[in-house]
Design brief:
This is UPF0215 protein SAMN05421858_2489. There is one protein chain. By secondary structure, the protein is of the alpha+beta class. It has one domain: 2-Layer Sandwich (archaeoglobus fulgidus dsm 4304 fold), CATH 3.30.2170.10. Strands 3-2-1-4-7-9-8 form a seven-stranded mixed β-sheet, with helices on both faces. Helix 1 runs parallel beside helix 2. 39% of the residues are buried.
Length: 197
C-alpha cells in the first residue's frame, strides 16, 4: 500500500463507575475522536464529537465526524468496536453508505457476541432496536496481525482487501495506527472535558 493512503480511525472514551451499575458515573456522553492517519503513520487530521452513553446515536455521531472532516482523500474508515458507549451499536452499513467509504470494525478480544449482554441490560423496544441493528452487521473474522490476533467486520470492501488494509495500517502490535491514535486523542479529550466541568 502506498504510504500516502489515508484512513479515518474513530475511537471513544468515557469514565465508567462500577458503583452505579449502569455503565456510567453520571456522565451521559462519551467523547469520540476521529483521526486521519496515513499508511506511513503520519496523522494529519483530528475531529472530536460525542455520543450518548447507552444510547443509539453512535452511527450518526461517526457520520458527523466524517462529514465535518470533509476529506476526499480518506479511503477507509476504521471503528474501534461494534458497541461503543455501553451498547451504543454501530451500524456499519449506514456509515459506509453515508460517507461513501468502506468501513472496518476492529475489536481486540474474543467474544461470544452481544446478544446475552443486550438481553441482560435492555428490554422491550430498547432491546429490539439494538438487536435489529446488531444482527444486520457482518460477522466477525479472526485476523493475525504481527504477533497478535484481532477480529474484524467489513462493509463496502471484500474480506481479502479488509485484511490487507488492517495489516497495512498496523506497523507493529495489533492495533491499527488510526485507532491507536484516535484512542489516545479520545482519552485526552475526555480528561480535558472532565477537568472543565
Amino acid at each position: 500500500m502506498k504510504p500516502g493512503v489515508r484512513a479515518l480511525g474513530v475511537a471513544e472514551s468515557y469514565h465508567a463507575n462500577a458503583s452505579d451499575g449502569d455503565g456510567g458515573d453520571g456522565e451521559t456522553t462519551s467523547t469520540l475522536a476521529g483521526v486521519v492517519t496515513r499508511a506511513n503513520r503520519v496523522a494529519d487530521g483530528f475531529v472530536f464529537g460525542t455520543c450518548t452513553v447507552g444510547g443509539t446515536d453512535v452511527s450518526d455521531a461517526i457520520i458527523d465526524l466524517g462529514e465535518r472532516l470533509d476529506r476526499e482523500d480518506v479511503r477507509y474508515v476504521f471503528v474501534a468496536g461494534i458497541a461503543l458507549s455501553w451498547y451504543n451499536i454501530v451500524d456499519m452499513h449506514r456509515i459506509a453508505d453515508a460517507l461513501s467509504r468502506p468501513i472496518v470494525s476492529v475489536t481486540f478480544e474474543e467474544s461470544d457476541g452481544l446478544e446475552t449482554g443486550l438481553e441482560t441490560e435492555f428490554s422491550g423496544e430498547a432491546l429490539e432496536r439494538r438487536q435489529e441493528t446488531y444482527r444486520r452487521q457482518p460477522p466477525r473474522h479472526e485476523l493475525a496481525v504481527n504477533d497478535q490476533t484481532v477480529f474484524i467486520r467489513n462493509v463496502g470492501i471484500d474480506g481479502d482487501e479488509a485484511r490487507d488494509v488492517v495489516r497495512a495500517f498496523t506497523p507493529e502490535g495489533g492495533r491499527p495506527e488510526p485507532l491507536r491514535v484516535a484512542r489516545l486523542a479520545a482519552r485526552a479529550g475526555d480528561e480535558w472535558q472532565r477537568m472543565e466541568r
